[in-house]
Amino acid sequence: MFQDAKAREKKLKKWKRQWKIDLIEKENPYWLDLSEGWWEEGDY
């Protein structure tokens, strides 16, 4: 699984900025903080 993520990162790194923005907006059109709620305050 880690290798898949690493390969995806390398692929995306070569993409133009607008392509990356389009990908984000397709999956998260309101640019919500997807990490919100992963931990409780004081855990970090």
Fold and architecture overview:
There is one protein chain. The protein has 44 residues and is mostly helical. The longest helix has 12 residues. The model has no long low-confidence stretch (mean pLDDT 86).
Percent range for β-strand residues = under 5%
- Quantity of strands, as a count: 0
Helical fraction equals 40-55%
Choose one word for the global shape: flat
Q: State the oligomer.
A: single chain
The biggest sheet amounts to: none
Sequence of secondary-structure elements: HH
Low-confidence stretches: none
**Span from first to last CA?**
26 Å
The chain-level structural class is mainly alpha
Number of separate helices: 2
What gyration radius follows from the Cα positions, in whole Å? 14 Å
Overall pLDDT metric: 86
What's the layout of helices and strands?
Elements: H1 2-13, H2 17-27
In short:
The protein has 44 residues and is mainly alpha-helical. The chain has two helices and no strands.
What labels would you give this structure?
2 helices, 52% helix, mainly alpha, single chain, 44 residues
